[in-house]
C-alpha cells in the first residue's frame, strides 16, 4: 500500500470509527434519554436492578473478594441468589409494564453505570430463625442527594406490599456496598445515579420466607412501586 493510499485508508477507517461511535451515542440518547438528561426528563426512565450474587464468580479482579461466596445465604430450601433473582425479574417486569427501561444486572455492573435509579437486591441471614425484617441503605458518602429519597420511597412501598417489619440494624457493608462505592471500584454506578441496596428479608426466618421465598411477587411489587413513585416525583 502506497503512503497516500494508507492515509486514505486510515481516514476512511477513522471516519467509520467515528460514525460508529456517534451512532452508538445517538442510539443511547434515543433509548436512554433520561439518564443523560440534565435539564429535564424526556422519554423513558432507565432503572438498574441488581440481582445480588448473580454470577459472582465472574467478578473482575477488583471484586475478587466476592469469588467463592457463591449463591449467598440459604433458607427455606432456596439460595439467596435464586430468591433475589426471582424478585429482580418480577420487579423488572412490573416496571417495564409502566414503560420503564430496566437492566437486570449481575454482580458485576458496567463501570460508571448510569441510570435514573439503581437498586441492589439481597436477602439477609441469621443463625436465629426469629430474626426477621427488611432494611435499606443509601450510599454512606453519596454525592447524589436523591438516594435517600429513593430509599424512603421503597421503605414505604415495601412495608405496604409485604407487611414485613423494618429491621433497624443497617450494616456498614450495606452503606459501603461496592456497587455504589465509585471512589473505590470501577464496576460501580456513576456518582449521579441514585442508588440503594435492599435486604428484602431474612431467608433464615420462616416468617420472612412466606414473602421472599413463597410470594416473591409481593417483594417485587414493593420495590417496583417505590422506584416508580421516586421516578415520577419530580415529573411535571
Ligand atoms: Zn447478599
TrEMBL record:
Protein's name in the database: MurNAc-LAA domain-containing protein
Domain of life assignment: Bacteria
Cellular component per GO, a single term: outer membrane-bounded periplasmic space
Gene Ontology molecular function: N-acetylmuramoyl-L-alanine amidase activity
Organism from which the protein derives: Candidatus Harrisonbacteria bacterium CG10_big_fil_rev_8_21_14_0_10_40_38
Record key words, sorted: Hydrolase
UniProt key word Hydrolase: yes
GO BP, one annotated term: peptidoglycan catabolic process
One Pfam family cited in the UniProt record for this chain: Amidase_3
Residues in MurNAc-LAA domain copies: 107-228
Amino acid at each position: 500500500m502506497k503512503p497516500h493510499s494508507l492515509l486514505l485508508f486510515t481516514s476512511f477507517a477513522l471516519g467509520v470509527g467515528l460514525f460508529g461511535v456517534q451512532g452508538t451515542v445517538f442510539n443511547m440518547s434515543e433509548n436512554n434519554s433520561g439518564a443523560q438528561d440534565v435539564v429535564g426528563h424526556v422519554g423513558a426512565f432507565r432503572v438498574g436492578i441488581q440481582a445480588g450474587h448473580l454470577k459472582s464468580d465472574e467478578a473482575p479482579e477488583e471484586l475478587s473478594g466476592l469469588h467463592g461466596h457463591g449463591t449467598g445465604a440459604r433458607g427455606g430450601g432456596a439460595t439467596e441468589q435464586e430468591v433475589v433473582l426471582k424478585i429482580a425479574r418480577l420487579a423488572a417486569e412490573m416496571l417495564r409494564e409502566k414503560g420503564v427501561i430496566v437492566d437486570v444486572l449481575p454482580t458485576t455492573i458496567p463501570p460508571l453505570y448510569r441510570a435514573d435509579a439503581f437498586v441492589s437486591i439481597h436477602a439477609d441471614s441469621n443463625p436465629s430463625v426469629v430474626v426477621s425484617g427488611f432494611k435499606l441503605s443509601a450510599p454512606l458518602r453519596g454525592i447524589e442527594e436523591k438516594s435517600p429519597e429513593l430509599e424512603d420511597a421503597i421503605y414505604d412501598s415495601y412495608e405496604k406490599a409485604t407487611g414485613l417489619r423494618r429491621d433497624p440494624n443497617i450494616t456498614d457493608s450495606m452503606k459501603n456496598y461496592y456497587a455504589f462505592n465509585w471512589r473505590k471500584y470501577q464496576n460501580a454506578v456513576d456518582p449521579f445515579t441514585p442508588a440503594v441496596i435492599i435486604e428484602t428479608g431474612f431467608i433464615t426466618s420462616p416468617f420472612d420466607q412466606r414473602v421472599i421465598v413463597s410470594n416473591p411477587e409481593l417483594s417485587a411489587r414493593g420495590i417496583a412501586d417505590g422506584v416508580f413513585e421516586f421516578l415520577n416525583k419530580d415529573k411535571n
